[in-house]
Sequence to fold (179 residues):
Amino acid sequence: MQARAPLMIEHRLIERMLLVIRKVLTEIESKQRVDPVFVDKAVDFIQVYADRTHHGKEEDILFRELNNRQLRTKDRHIMEELIEEHVFGRQTTKALVEANTRYRNGDENALTDIAANLQTLTDFYPRHIEKEDKEFFPSSRNYFTDEEDQAMLAEFWEFDRNMIHEKYKSLVDGFQGQQ
Ligand SMILES: [Fe+2]
Ligand SMILES: [Fe+2]
Fold:
């Protein structure tokens, strides 16, 4: 298995979640309301799975290794775009969390912001995934020997191994911080 395989498998789950969000967007449109608990769960998926676990492997391992190499201008440019898109995704998710808090506190107008931010995520994310799957990952592979690619794959598994512990430690930290 090549190192990019787990990243691409993760893309497929993110795409399935985007389909779920699209369906909920249609319901928001027709019913003019949303279940804030769904938004919480979508945010958790985006922050813990798509951002921390998935972007974490991309940025902390793949991009870090690529940074140590002489990239072609085009590849460096795409990598910078991808990093900016990760930042944009985080900002959109933050705005979504804020809108959900306002909605929960009775601000009906916040529904428009929840829908707009969910829509933004479903619009930009598929293009980001396609850029990585079809363009960036294949050209990145050329900068690594087979051994280097396998070393990255091993580091990916190690990164994943820590994620469940990080998630629940942060949950407990959060509860204790609130006391
Ligand atoms: Fe990415
Ligand atoms: Fe990705």
The chain has a mean pLDDT of 97.
